[in-house]
Amino acid sequence: MTPTIAVLLIITFLLSTVGLLLLIWSIANNQFSHGQAAARTIFSPGEEGHSEDPARPAETAFTGDNLDQTEALEARWIADQSSRAAVLTWLSSSVFWLLLGSVFGLMSSIKMHLPEFLAASEFLTFGRVRPVHLNAVTYGWASMAGIGVALFLIPRLFKTSLAGGKYAVCGALIWNIGLILGLGAITLGLSDGEEWLEFPWQIDVLFVVGGALCAVPLLLTAANRQVEHLYVSSWYLMAALVWFPILFFIANLPFTFPGASGAAVNWWFAHNVLGLWVTPIGIGIAYYMIPKILGKPIISYQLSLIGFWALALFYSQVGIHHIIGGPIPTWLVTLSIVHSVMMSIPVITVAINHHGTMMGNFGRLKDSPTLRFVWIGALMYTVASLQGSMEALRSINVITHFTHYTVAHAHLGMYAFLSFILFGAFYFIMPRLTNWEWPWRGLISLHFWLVSVGILIYVVSLTLSGWKQGLALLTADLPFMDIVRMTLPALKARTLCGLLMTLGHLVFAFHFVAMLMRRGKAKEQATLFRPSTKEVAR
Amino acid sequence: MKQHDQRAQYREAPEPEEGNAATPKAVLLWIFILIVWGVGYYILQIGKPMQGGDSRSVQVTTAQSTQLSAKDAQGAAQTSEKSVAQQAEQADSTVTADGASIYSIHCSACHQPTGLGIPGAFPPLANSEWVQAKPEITIAIVRDGLVGPIEVAGSNYQGAMPNFGGKLSDAELSAVLSFIRSQWGNSAAAVSLQSVSEYKARFADRNSWTAEELKETFGAP
């Protein structure tokens, strides 16, 4: 190790560590004490202690019968109305891309064990279908739904109306055009050839413009905010919206990163999309929805602070663990491994905050679709992240790298964590925007069970089979084809799971459209998994 | 049934806030442990090679193999000194000249674990007249490589066998050659370390052989 590089390495690590220690020191010395009084500005008087959104019993309903309550209700109503058009545009688009992405995912899965499936057309070969799946679900579903939910939450968090919502609508249109052109380009074989960065850079410009048009209203809204204390969800959402454009712009710069440095930038970006874009969005939403539905505060402000800043300080060096053993300097890999393991700090603090708040309220999972989806998502965030820290270690990576284990891990993160939280957020947001209740509780149940069983079998089968595959690949005298055959049962199970999840998405999309068209009976009560007591009585 | 406007906004709980629970001591302890671990992990890496892949240099492996042969010649190992013991241990792990493992690392990707090769692309070693010919021919092919057309076991191949002279030590060459000459139904004599040394002395540094040159130099297999 040359002195220069050793110094660089130590500085990167030291900066993050010193930052974290400073934060802990400040917390210990009460520098951050926001005081309950400040918090009460968010928590409108008279509302505290009431229970949740959908299941809140009618007799204790908050009726807005004093001034403060009326004001709080008005603020909420105004915030929701102001963001309505923008949020609905982003969310509706995301549902379409979810369906398209699912179909392409299913196609790639079938091709893994039935290679001749749709092989006659060059446009439907594995090398094109699979990137279409990845880009449609990442930039179409996850990103658009995430931005949509952020557009809904930020006016609420800042107690103001969304400024310049039409820019966001315009941004959604441009983003959609970008997706159509980008996915079309991949299908025609015009890919940049780097995973997560397949869209040709000329098309990436559209995403930059679309995203920027979305950032304008959010920044204006933040400037107009009516609250002094920023709730933890707003940190995550705003940070994600700042980080992602920077990452996306740098990684897509054409002609800048040739060869092995391109690989390093590629995975630096790809993992940061997960950690600094979809993770903060998912955590931010969970931080909002869990206390919102339960009607009780998140347990610890201090843990929120450590969790957020540890993510910010340690995440961006994590991605290089994807190329352990690759043609890049070993010190870079080592740095990335250490930072990957350090990631267990934000994960554990966020987990304590989320699950600690849930403690004693697990019964509510039986009723509230939002809570059930969001909490399972939050739980899977904990699981996927701790698993990810383990996978970054050389001794484990040597087994799991280039196996289906990694695929299971990726879906645990992007689906069981993020998509579940997004589903939960949809069930919360839509009644407030359409002024209508979800028409059929059976469909919510069906959606939940299809996607849950699907992802459960998916992750379990690919994890086990991937681990066995990894061990077999390390056994030099085992013929390669035997190992491929060994994984076939898991690959078939995956197709079955993909089918279940795709069916679940069809149910969800149907229900979403029915909701937009205000189908079903007019209801006063929220649509829950179980009929609320009042309805039963009637 | 009558619906009220804003009913969803009415029935929901207030905007969320944060409680004041302190950071658990266990979390602080875990942060401390991780920082210590991180520093320790870096320290462990000091002195390790900077680049990935097989980072052993040719000089190191050769030096180790010479040491090993010297040691073998002496018979008993001199393990009284710690450094000698360590070197011997390293040497053992790299060059105890286990023909089977050398084969699986360097040869089996093309010639397959079964020794049958891949028809039309990589010639078989099993029942190959070249493998079971004079030791010099096998040493020549593996050490210096082979290009151009060659007929093996009745089939014609047109390819390029890379040279392994820079990758394998003399002891490793003799081990892997002895291995392939005794596997899969082959039954030629082992290739001694001495014949490798003799070959080296005779041809020193040269380029890849062709099948014709081999026949001219050593006689037909």
Automatic annotation (TrEMBL), chain A:
InterPro entries: Cyt_c_oxase-like_su1_dom, Cyt_c_oxase-like_su1_sf, Cyt_C_Oxase_1
SUPFAM superfamilies attached to this UniProt entry: Cytochrome c oxidase subunit I-like
GO terms, biological process: electron transport coupled proton transport; oxidative phosphorylation; respiratory electron transport chain
Keyword annotations of the record: Electron transport, Membrane, Respiratory chain, Transmembrane, Transmembrane helix, Transport
PROSITE patterns: COX1
Listed transmembrane segments: 6-28, 85-107, 136-155, 167-189, 201-223, 235-255, 267-290, 302-324, 330-352, 373-390, 410-430, 442-464, 493-516
GO molecular function annotation: cytochrome-c oxidase activity; heme binding
GO CC field: membrane
Cytochrome oxidase subunit I profile domain boundaries: 1-538
Official protein name in the record: Cbb3-type cytochrome c oxidase subunit I
Native species: Sediminihaliea albiluteola
Lineage: Bacteria, Pseudomonadati, Pseudomonadota, Gammaproteobacteria, Cellvibrionales
UniProtKB/TrEMBL annotation, chain B:
Residues spanning the membrane: 27-44
Compositionally biased intervals (Polar residues): 76-90
Name under which the protein is recorded: Cytochrome c
Region: Disordered, residue numbers: 71-90
Keywords, alphabetical: Electron transport, Heme, Iron, Membrane, Metal-binding, Transmembrane, Transmembrane helix, Transport
Keyword Iron recorded: yes
GO MF term set: electron transfer activity; heme binding; iron ion binding
PANTHER family on file: BLL4482 PROTEIN, BLL4482 PROTEIN-RELATED
Domain Cytochrome c span(s) in chain numbering: 94-184
Pfam families reported for this sequence: Cytochrom_C
SUPFAM superfamilies per UniProt: Cytochrome c
InterPro entries tied to this protein: Cyt_c-like_dom, Cyt_c-like_dom_sf, Cyt_C_IC, Cytochrome_c-type_DH
Family annotation (Gene3D superfamilies): Cytochrome c-like domain
